[in-house]
Automatic annotation (TrEMBL):
Family: Belongs to the beta-eliminating lyase family.
Family annotation (PROSITE patterns): BETA_ELIM_LYASE
Superkingdom, natural source: Bacteria
Quaternary assembly: Homotetramer.
Reaction(s) catalysed (UniProt annotation): L-tyrosine + H2O = phenol + pyruvate + NH4(+)
Keyword Lyase: yes
Necessary cofactors: pyridoxal 5'-phosphate
Enzyme class: lyase
Name of the featured protein: Tyrosine phenol-lyase
Alphabetic keyword roster: Lyase, Pyridoxal phosphate
Residue(s) carrying N6-(pyridoxal phosphate)lysine: K271
Species this protein is from: Denitratimonas tolerans
Molecular function GO terms recorded: tyrosine phenol-lyase activity
Length: 472
């Protein structure tokens, strides 16, 4: 199969158009609302797209977590669910799939990714520890801090530059990591958290060379590496495309090698594994595995189901195999690139190069008249919904939360609005609608007013915070 390109790109360079490598067997009707209905829904939701009812949404790009369309093989697997409380055969299918494709020895199932993050944090972190990572993720950092650690961002500087075309903006800066080790001591760093791809940086990948170099550095100090492997297969495609020596290797081979430079991983199966629920923690550390297997009974469920039904474990095991199919993965990232090509033609600012799972709009560039305290990324998500019923989400100052010590806002350099593309759900025509709506919102940017926060929950505020429009 040829490398997917946008239809506009294909026409421009005389290349053949491409289509999704699947056909539709079932449809779910979408609701098209009026602007007046959307205004009412937005006000009732406190201008927070997380609080909108899904029935009021036309094209839902809030997240790619659990929103994928499962294959016919996965649905068939759902009928083979062994719902025994202990020792479900579906767990052993899942365990074998993880061991085969990711290479880790021990597996603990969880209800979703944050369950795995909690287990790892509780098992590995002690009060006063420090966890370096290549940019924070909301739930990951919360669990690390809740367990008593301080998170440190050691990603390369290019990750904070939306215009940089660095091919691996998710890479860890080895000098930053070394300085942290020298500052706090290796015994205070339970592990390095290496995310692939890096969500908050725009879905940017990590190179194999960087993973290998981080392994070499941490090995000198006895520091472990745990992946946030949620989109590791997407990361593998970028390595295949961009890194010398990997163009002839399969995604499965690249994935297995990448994981070999780590000691374990947390996984939200709701992304790469193409299922609606589920996750896992995997490790090569027998001692940590025993602790996590004890904790999972407290927090999640028995160690052979971890909060998942047998049918969900079976669907996930099948999804792991399907995820490393190169035709599927090229089409998945190709659809994101198609949307990026359209936005680029119209000069709409977003994080470049295009990442694996989403387009991240540069809300600062959209609304230079808005201070960060006026929540430009939240404003952009609200304006897009108001224009067309498309639901996106904020990834800026609201998601960053507050400093636990000072109580001040964390102020990230990036103020982004995420358009997250579910897997095997929408067509290119839907992407056209999204692009045209964004063009309309961009053209009206100068007259757009920001927001103020009127309700702030204690934890992970971006999920439930409420806002109102600033007066004109």
């Amino acid at each position: 199969m040829n490398q997917p390109v946008s239809r506009t790109m294909g026409q421009q360079f005389g290349r053949r158009s491409w289509a999704e490598p699947w056909k539709i067997k079932m449809v779910e009707p979408l609701t098209v609302t009026t602007r007046e209905e959307r205004q009412k829904a937005l006000e009732e939701a406190g201008y927070n797209t997380f609080l909108l009812r899904s029935e009021d949404v036309y094209i839902d790009l809030l997240t790619d977590s659990g929103t994928s369309a499962m294959s016919d093989r996965q649905w068939a697997g759902m009928m083979l669910g062994d719902e025994a409380y202990a020792g479900s055969r579906n767990f052993y299918h899942l365990e074998t799939a993880i061991q085969t494709y990711y290479g880790y020895k021990y597996v603990v199932p969880t209800h979703q990714g944050r369950g795995a993050e909690n287990l790892l944090s509780q098992a590995a972190i002690r009060l006063g520890d420090h966890v370096p990572g290549n940019m924070y993720f909301t739930t990951t950092r919360f669990h690390q801090e809740h367990a008593g650690a301080t998170f440190h961002d050691v990603i390369i500087d290019e990750a904070h530059d939306t215009a940089s075309l660095h091919p691996f903006k998710g890479n860890i800066d080895l000098d930053k990591l070394q300085r942290l080790i020298d500052q706090v001591g290796a015994d205070k760093i339970p592990y390095v958290c290496l995310a692939v791809t890096v969500n908050m940086a725009g879905g940017q990948p990590v190179s194999m060379a960087n993973a290998r170099a981080v392994r070499e550095l941490t090995a000198r100090y006895g520091i472990k590496i745990y992946l946030d492997a949620t989109r590791a297969v997407e990361n593998a495609l970028f390595i295949q495309e961009r890194e010398e020596g990997y163009s002839d290797k399969s995604l499965a081979e690249i994935l297995r090698e990448f994981c070999s430079y780590s000691d374990g991983a947390t996984m939200s199966g709701k992304k790469d594994h193409l299922v609606n629920i589920g996750g896992w923690l995997a490790t090569n550390d027998r001692e940590l595995f025993e602790e996590a297997r004890n904790l999972v009974v407290v927090y999640e469920g028995l160690h052979t189901y971890g909060g998942m039904a047998g049918r969900d474990m079976e669907a996930m095991a099948i999804g792991i195999e399907e995820s490393v199919n190169v035709d599927y993965m090229r089409s998945r990232i190709g659809q994101v690139r198609y949307l990026g090509d359209l936005l680029d033609q119209w000069g709409i600012p977003f994080m470049k190069p295009v990442g694996g799972h989403a387009i991240f709009l540069d809300a600062r560039a959209f609304y230079p008249q808005l201070e960060q305290d006026q929540f430009p990324a939240q404003t952009l998500a609200a304006e897009l919904y108001l224009d067309s019923g498309i639901r996106a989400m904020e990834r800026g100052i609201v998601s960053a939360g507050r400093d636990q010590v000072t109580g001040d806002h964390h102020r990230p350099k990036l103020e982004l609005t995420r358009l997250t593309i579910p897997r095997r759900v929408y067509t290119q025509a839907h992407m056209d609608v999204v692009a045209e709506s964004l063009k309309a919102v961009y053209e009206a940017r100068e007259s757009t007013r920001g927001l103020r926060m009127v309700y702030e929950p204690k934890y992970l505020r971006f999920f439930q915070a409420r806002f109102e429009r600033l007066p004109g």
